[in-house]
Amino acid sequence: MEGVEALLLAGRDGPDAVSQHRRVLDHARAAGVSHLVKLSAVGASMSSPIALMREHEEVDELVRRSGASFTLLRPHLYMQNLLRAADAVRRDGVLAAPMGTDRYPLVDTRDVGAAAAVVLADPAAHAGMTHVLTGPQAVTYADVAAAIAVAAGRVEYESVEPGVYEERLMAAGLPAWRAFDLAHITAAYTPTDREVSQTLAALLGREPRSLSEFLADHRAAFRPAHS
Predict the structure, then answer these.
(1) What angle do CA 207, 107, 217 make, to 5 degrees?
(2) In a 10 Å sphere around its CB, with 0-12 CB exposed, 13-18 middle and 19+ buried, how is residue 9 labelled?
(3) Where in the chain are the domains?
């Protein structure tokens, strides 16, 4: 980190996430990094039932107390997470998810990356700020299935109870901590957390990518081979 003035901190979630971030922050402090940009998440809170969100908030607090200036980026659920379901959508024409009927302002990771670049280019202008990053529209997962159908053919949404979904994930070989967080992720969000934010558009100087734009770019991932 010698000569680094601004650092983007984006770690992988997991049981070792906090200790890994802490080690990186120790190195950053020793190297004299003056500004930290932390990729956090909407819903980060020490009181969250979701380990991922507790870990995000714990690291966010380490960043706040690091002595460096900082900016927190808090994106909502990534559109790219939908690609995990692509095989099942191609095979069965079903989008199975534990998301109920609530609406979520899904965001494209490409826009989150572009926003991080804006902040890194002028850290002082964003010092001490927490930027909530969402897509342009909040959608239900029934809406998501309908949008996939437009892009790639017939798809239906199967709303799965979180406990059932957790069992499916564990049967597929996911570790228990990961299966729980993925299955119960809706518990991380309050109604306010599910609202659309205009911050991303302001940072980018344009509207964030819509769900339909994302799916148009990834149509091949969801389309059956015979179509």
Answers:
(1) 80
(2) buried
(3) 6-222
Long-range pairs of 177-181 with CB within 8 A, sequence gap ≥ 24 = 177/14, 177/15, 177/51, 178/14, 180/50, 180/51, 181/13, 181/50, 181/51, 181/52
Q: Which CATH superfamily is domain 6-222 in?
A: NAD(P)-binding Rossmann-like Domain (3.40.50.720)
Could you tell me the two tokens for 58?
Answer: 């714990």
Q: Mind listing the pLDDT tens digit for each residue in 73-112?
A: 999 999 999 999 999 999 999 999 999 999 999 999 999 9
Structure tokens at 205: 């100087």
Structure tokens at 105: 């302002």
**Residue labelled with tokens 């909040």:** 138
Closest by Cα among 76, 68, 80, 83 to 34: 68
Give dist(CA 200, CA 195) in Å, integer: 13
Is residue 167 packed enough to be buried (19+ CB in 10 Å), middle (13-18) or exposed (0-12)? middle
Rounded to 5 degrees, φ, ψ at 172 are: -85, 0
- Widest CA span in the chain: 57
pTM, rounded to two decimals: 0.94
